[in-house]
Amino acid sequence: MSHQSDLISTDIEAYLKQHEQKQLLRFITCGSVDDGKSTLIGRLLFDSKMLYEDELAKIEADSKTQGAVGGKFDPSLATDGLKEEREQGITIDVAYRYFSTAKRKFIIADTPGHEQYTRNMATGASSADLAVILIDARHGVMTQTKRHSFIVSLLGIRHVIIAINKMDLVDFDEATYNRICADYIEFTRRLDLPDLYLIPLSALNGDNVVDRSEHMPWYNGATLMNRLESVDIGSDRNLQDFRMPVQWVNRPNLDFRGYCGTIASGVVRKGDEVMIMPGKTKTHVKEIVSFDGNIDEAFAPLAITLTFDDEVDASRGDMVVQPGNVPTISDTVEAMLVWMAEEPMVPGKTYIVKHSAQTITGSVESLRYRIDVNTLQSSPSPQLNLNEIGRCRLSLNEPICFDSYKSNRSTGALILIDRITNATVAAAMILDRSASGKKQAAWEEEITIEEGNQRAGEFREVTPSEREARYGQKPVTVLFTGLSGSGKATIAKAVERKLFTNGRAVMVLDEQQVRRGLSEDPGFSFEEASEDLQRSAHLANILNDAGIICLAAFVAPNAAVRDTVAGLIGTNRFLMVHVDAPIELCRQRDTRGQSSKADTGTRPEASAVAAPYEAPVSPDLMLNTEKQSVDECANAVVELLKRNGFLRS
Questions:
Q1: Residue 606 pLDDT > 70
Q2: Using CB atoms within 10 A of its CB, is residue 354 exposed (0-12), middle (13-18) or buried (19+)?
């Protein structure tokens, strides 16, 4: 299995050329404490004959005094090189080993399993193509197994091998293997792990590591080495979006000015039109200079120097892209943050932010939520502690050019550095906020406002029950929906007066009132009106959080949008009232001339009288303002609130 070849003795240059052209696979081993990560790597190196004789002799000698298998050969000592690691029998720092076979070259990162060293694991995983996650067959899926699986998914590692280790200690029992497989697959349903492969093995004895085990005839899959040699990583590289951050401007003489950098993704060819971001200056590629001289095309991850036909202003931190396929430019980003510092992360503190070749400053503007790695549930949190993961909004002192981490691991990654200690405190993966309709991983899901209300109570000084006792009411949002001119706002204001007179805390949100302030930018098209309504729903929810009854008068013409609003506010504190009236009566009540504008075509989308309206199928209350007076309608709404328990007697 090793890289031995007859060419070594006959044609060394041909052998070196052949070896140079082998595909490189970077992978990590991770999992819970004592799952056998270091042992697995040692066995892999030993069975593939990649341990030198002097190194092997040292491991055999150390196995008698520092080994964990009763004086027998301990493969874990091949990677646990620190004195503390050998004394305690644990992995502390990331250990890198290199080996090759006839088919591939490999770089292994042996990462620690202890929770306190999770940041070391994340560091090792950041450049990996594949992850081998070990599970002790005696213990099954552990907390740290879940944590490492979550981080592997978060860091965009597409290929994962689940090595169910120590099968010899459970008598190679197939039922145990199947149970662990089922438990792990159930946990990872909400993770983004597109290529998952499970293997039963014994790292200590070598079962299914390089050679197939005779003790598990019920397993018909590949061995670990077979899988490592055959997994397809060629399609993982992004060759569509050309991105080259400028790292250095090379000016050796008056006749040459080149822009040096490593291609993060995509392909560039001589003569291609390119654009320098963020200035958006266009030019053409004159030359592509590499270590081996001028070439006609280059692709990721080559380090090259570009020269251009025109004199352009580009410096370190700028990005060379292709017109028509450009990254996002913004000084705010949504990102998942892995916190790596002993001191907790508190929003508002300024950090040094490194993105690609650019170094700027910025802060965590807000922490949206924290992820529980055991349940994959998100919950509000005022801060992140060591090794915790959360979704945040970063505010930067100047714009950066970025892609989502999922599409580009180079331009979609950030690190945060403490300005005083110069220590790396966090790694951030930028989220793709344009992926509507695509399958989302657990950390990309939005917390609904209802969920946020349920989880955020412990962080409020005044609890909902205290507000309920003070106001004598439960908070609720009543959506009055109907055609423009049907009387929605008039009824809402009449209800407000009745409730206020009785000492209730109540407020009306009128569509026209909101458009004069909070939502003055959206227009009157269907999409813009929907955006207006959803913004107002967030405001209504804030009022409800304060214990206030919110009466929202909006056209809300679409059933799907109304359902979205109900979900945002929370179905347990949402009521819908359909205010109905004939179209001709609505036109007569039109005091703002929207109907005439719609009729004449001056603004055809301006009036819900002219626009399509989907009447609610089963509203909580139906009102007809042609047949009922304003006072009758208002009384009916008050009775609705009492009947549903939102008003105390």
A1: no
A2: middle
Pairing of strands 303-308, 358-371: unpaired
- 3-state SS class at 159: strand
Tokens of 82: 């620190």
Residues 247 and 225 in one domain: no
| Closest-CA residue to 128 (of 164, 104, 160) | 160
Decide: 266 and 243 in contact? Cβ < 8 Å: yes
Q: Are 60 and 160 found together in one domain? A: yes
518 lies in the same domain as 470: yes
Q: What is the secondary structure of 420-432 as a DSSP string?
A: TT--EEEEEEE--
Distance CA 499, CA 126 (A): 58
Banded pLDDT at 493 (limits 50, 70, 90): very high
Pair (508, 387) in one structural domain:
no
> Are 251 and 228 within one domain?
no
What are 46-79's pLDDT values in tens digits? 777 766 666 677 766 666 666 555 556 666 666 6
217: preceding bond cis by omega (within 30 degrees) = no
Report the percent of the chain where pLDDT is more than 90: 38
Let me know whether 389 and 474 are in one domain: no
Total number of domains in the chain: 4
**In this model, does residue 570 exceed pLDDT 90?**
no
Half-sphere exposure of 507 (CA within 13 A, CB side): 14
Pairing of strands 328-339, 424-430: antiparallel
Residue with the bigger pLDDT between 41 and 49: it is: 41
Neighbours of 122 (CB within 10 A): 23
What is the distance between the alpha carbons of residues 194 and 160, in angstroms, rounded to a whole number?
8
Counting Cβ atoms within 10 Å, is residue 400 exposed (0-12), middle (13-18) or buried (19+)?
A: buried
Model pTM greater than 0.70?
no
Do residues 549 and 480 make contact, with C-beta atoms less than 8 angstroms apart?
no
**Would you give the DSSP letter of residue 265?**
B
pLDDT in tens, 334-348: 999 999 888 998 788
Biggest alpha carbon–alpha carbon distance for the chain = 102
For residues 553 and 510, is the Cβ–Cβ distance under 8 A? Answer: yes
Euclidean distance between CA atoms 306 and 260, whole angstroms: 6
**Domain annotation covers residue 184:** yes
**Residue 98 in this model has a pLDDT that exceeds 60:** yes
Rg (CA), the chain: 31
My answer on whether 612 and 474 are in the same domain is yes
What type of residue is 138?
Answer: R
204: which 2 tokens?
């200590």
Q: What is the mean pLDDT of the chain?
A: 81
Q: What is the mean pLDDT of residues 106-120?
A: 74
Q: How far apart are CA 197 and CA 181, in angstroms?
A: 10
Tokens for 295, please give them: 């070439």
Domain containing residue 293: 243-321
101 token code pair: 């076979």
**Domain limit, last residue, from 176, 205, 235:** 235
Shared-domain flag, residues 508 and 622: yes
Question: Which of 489, 451, 453, 501 lies closest to 647 in space, CA to CA?
Answer: 501
Question: Hey, what amino acid is at 272?
Answer: D
What does the pLDDT look like over 288-316, one tens digit per residue? 999 889 999 999 889 999 999 998 888 99
Number of DSSP helices (H) and strands (E) in the chain, helices first: 18, 28
